[in-house]
Amino acid sequence: MSQSNPVDAGEYDLVAVANRLPVDFTVDDAGEVSWSRSPGGLVTALEPMMQAADGAWVGWSGAPDLAHEPFDGDDIRLVPVTLSAEEIELYYEGFSNDTLWPLYHDVITAPAYHRQWWEAYRRVNRRFAEAAAAQVARGGTVWVHDYQLQLVPAMIRELRPDVRIGFFNHIPFPGLEIFAQLPWRRQIVEGLLGADVIGFQRASDASNFVRAVRRLTDLTTRGQVVTVTGADGRAERHVRAAAFPISIDSAHFDQLARRPEVQQRAREIREELGNPQTLLLGVDRLDYTKGIRHRVKAFGELVEDGRLTVPEATLVQVASPSRENVGAYQQLREDVELLVGRINGDFGHLGHPAVHYLHHSYPPKEMAALYLAADVMLVTALRDGMNLVAKEYVAARSDDRGVLVLSEFTGAADELTGAVMVNPHDIDGMKDMIVRAVEMDAREQRKRMRRLRRRVLEDDVAKWSRSFLSVLGAVPLAEPAGWTGSAGSSGLAAGDPTEEAAEPVR
Ligand code: G6P
């Protein structure tokens, strides 16, 4: 990594850095660019703090070659990072989504290792780091998100040694035996160690990371704390790895699903489907980590075995388009569509397909109506950092009805112990559990759903971000030579003693 000179402070106390900005850009025929808010989970989590604390968000617009000056959007400074079409291919589709994504999801599909992709990843990470370093105020806080930007923490530290740096990995962190495949494993670990606090979804992800540090560097660790040494070998700072399971804006989803028009829409959906006795639902990005094929196969076999019948039971599978230029995603789409076509051909009736497959995404209101309409929610991921769909389903069910079938390989499984747990690789076991969910009486549904709802409503995304920022805010700020003034007094996360205890949410 090339040495960079420190840069001047910017004016924002809290800077979020993520691959995508929380807005959608559109370019009209005349080349005019306009934008609208895209209400993702992360922005919901950070928005109140960003608005209260002079916040900026650094990210990619989602389109190639779109150069746009920083602008203010709803009290948050939005700072677009430009990516060329080639960088999207090498850094985003290539290294992020065809190397790191499959590697970090336990090599469900084979990762590809290309030196050219790695070079682009480094180059683009540096661009994000430079943009963030130019925005953050002296003594402020930078919070970097996810696997696309793992080199950014160390790059920011070089440029701005005066700030606190947090990193949160939204996806799993793999065991050492798998991570060790990566030709650039040491650089990734060193990039992450530029942060003061590294957050993971599950305790096992944090332990996997600490184990990688022990094996791939000479640094010492104590529990989940890594001691980083300076050039003279003396302890310079401590980096804490810990679990902070992410959540959703549960109250918002709960409220949405209580709205009369949403409840009416839920009834309409059931009617449109011919009022089946049992509506089973899957909602995922069309991604090979989600176990969509395993789930559809299990459903098809249950119909074939006569344990479920069509049209009394029907499966709705929403599969939102994702990363469509990556080969593994194109292959998955073909596989899923072939399977759905076969099952419908074999078991569907006129006007009553066995599987309703929808390759679209839907707005939150329609999703809430679908959740309310579904008797059984199938979350059967082969590996998933958290899985927020499972939490959305629970938040929507204020009627205490419905059954969540949940893969034990999701982060959510650590928390949502009231779900019916499955191993999606075990098709027979999963079939039995699906039947169990379909047949579950109202009393047991209520008992389980209440337990699930307590957890989801209490541990919401606001608690998640407060908890992370409070741990980060307790880290002492470095006072590097050449920096004067009251570093630490301006950042939101500078450790307000009245804040709740610096404990990660479980
Ligand atoms: C996962 C990742 C996010 C990513 C999202 C959508 O949730 O953790 O970082 O933004 O998928 O994927 P995309 O490639 O469209 O941004």
Shape by Cα distribution? globular
Strand order of the largest sheet: 5-6-4-1-7-8-9-12-11-10
**CATH level-1 class of the largest domain:** Alpha Beta
Could you give me the name of the CATH homologous superfamily of the largest domain?
Glycogen Phosphorylase B
Residues in helices, as a percent range: 40-55%
Q: Would you identify the regions where 5 or more consecutive residues have pLDDT less than 50?
A: 482-506
Distance between the termini: 36 Å
The distinct bound ligands, ions and cofactors come out as: 6-O-phosphono-alpha-D-glucopyranose
Biggest β-sheet, characterized? 10 strands, mixed
What Rg is obtained from the alpha carbons, in whole angstroms? 23 Å
Strand content: 15-25%
Helical element count? 17
CATH topology of the largest domain: Rossmann fold
Question: What does this protein look like?
Answer:
- The chain is α/β, with parallel strands linked by helices.
- It folds into 2 domains: 12-246, 3-Layer(aba) Sandwich (Rossmann fold); 250-458, Glycogen Phosphorylase B (Rossmann fold).
- Helix content is 41%, strand content 20%.
- It contains 17 helices and 18 strands.
- The chain has helices at 41-52, 85-104, 115-135, 152-159, 176-179, 185-192, 203-216, 250-258, 260-272, 292-304, 327-347, 364-373, 388-396, 412-415, 427-439, 442-458, 461-473, and strands at 12-20, 23-27, 33-37, 55-60, 71-73, 76-81, 136-145, 164-168, 197-200, 220-222, 225-229, 235-243, 278-285, 313-320, 355-358, 376-379, 403-407, 420-422.
- The strands form 3 sheets. It has a 10-stranded mixed sheet with strand order 5-6-4-1-7-8-9-12-11-10, with helices on both faces. Strands 15-14-13-16-17-18 form a 6-stranded parallel sheet, with helices on both faces.
- Strand 10 (220-222) and strand 11 form a beta hairpin.
- Helix 1 packs across helix 17 (461-473), helix 9 (260-272) crosses helix 12 (364-373) and helix 10 (292-304) crosses helix 15.
- The longest helix has 21 residues, at 115-135.
- It is globular, with a radius of gyration of 23 Å.
- Residues 19-20, 146, 170-171, 322-323 line the site of 6-O-phosphono-alpha-D-glucopyranose.
